[in-house]
Amino acid sequence: MKLSQIPYERITIEEITSKMRDFIDRFENATSAQEQMEVYRQYDEYGADISTTFSLLNIRFTLDTTDEFYAKEKDYLNEISPFVEQLSQEFNDKLLQSKYIDELKKLLPELIFTRLEYAKKCFNDEILEDLQLESKLEMEYSKITAGAMIEFDGQQLTMPQLGKYKQSPDREVRRAAYNAQGAWLETVSDKIDDIFDQMVKVRTRIAQKLGFANYHEMSIYRMRRIGYGIEDIRTFRKQVKEDLVPIIAKLKAKQAQELGIDKVTVIDDPLIFANGNPNPIGTPEEIFANGKKMYHEMSDETGKFIDFMLEHDLFDVLSRKGKAMGGYCTQLPKYKMPFIFANFNGTSGDVDVLTHEAGHAFAAYKAFDLPWEDIQSPGMETAEIHSMSMEFFAEKWMDLFFGDRADDYRYMHLSSSLSFIPYGTIVDYYQEIVYTNPDMTPAQRTATFRRLLDEYCPNLCPDGITAFEQGKRWMFQLHIFEYPFYYIDYCLAQTMSLEFLVMMKKDYKSAWETYLKLVGYAGTLPFPQLVEACGMKSPLKPGTLKEVALEIEKLL
Predict the structure, then answer these.
(1) pLDDT exceeds 90 at position 150
(2) Does 117 map to a domain?
């Protein structure tokens, strides 16, 4: 069955309530651990059905945010989601309080119980209306950014379509593209400020109702950071500033010399080569044909995976009006299908979809073999290791996509991967400051982001782009609005992916075997234990980032 053939049918809150009440009653009245396990198996299977329906709805909505039917269905989902979470938490409480808990812990993976304890800390009935408002605000932001049409070069362009002009070899074209983006942002920044102000207030209210000092403290549990916490992240951030920022400064000085300018600013940062960045060769169809060849040559497992993805049309990658920004990989567990969403714009990012998002999809494809839905999904930082590391494993095949500029792509990719980490770190740092100071004004928030950029990423100096000079660049960062505190996961994972790159330069086959081992664990181990089980070094440990960065610097 192809994705477009999968029927969408609303699951009503009445139906969900009836089914969940039945599971709760039967679990509570069971007379043995084995009987409870059978109820849990059915509950887990039904949960996969709900996840599939909700995921399918989100796919259809993001493919066209102007579709009135799916927009209304999305509104309904936002309305009922807190009540679904409430019912799930009630079942989970019964599981945690079972009189057969000792036997159940021998039958189910230990991590499931830890995750349930974390989830319990993040929910009670008092926050239902707040969760509804949070979802509504997230949808408002998505509609604003998805609806962006920017007048440029005599055309009406979506934000992703503008991207190729921001990488033009002509500096004035780049400046004009950034000015156009900034001018659009100024028309909606007050609205975005208002949405985010409401988000900060509602998330703060949620955290305090649950007994947390602030939403930043709560985020450790909401993001399921099992085995590490706030101080570990601060330790990583300290490494970024002390050990990595100076290396990036040297890298950007080299880039400025290549471009023939005094220093790199925001309008130059994406352009690595004076003659233009390497762009993929061929049509989207040809790119996918080469992607199929690459994954068949990479391994038997990846060959079967890419055939499955293409056979079932599990990609939607062309940018168009009304389509949501960004890219993602999601899952339809009922059908054991991953799905990849992207916005091609004619840049190297199009190939990254076939590496980064396909890394997520490959891991999901493999994880569907595990028996319980909850352990099919790892922590976010682990999921990003899957994707970011696949980008480097795929580099052997870049000649297929970039021809005689394949080496230029490899250099650009490595340089960009390393220099991303400071930016990703300040996105997380910014959120920590905002949520520990929830009464900041919008002006204070934008000033804070500008200060952090100057401190960690001087290469992103606004260079006269008005909205960016004011510190409003953060408004384009979807994760701040829809996936708060996710961004540090990219940074931890990027460090791990660079560690994989160092490994594969020494022994590609051994590195690939370690990668498959890591993917195979899926969600069965928390991040610190997973790193240890794979014989790798944790980015949370002092010295790891510096060691990896110095090795990477040798390759640049």
Answers:
(1) yes
(2) yes
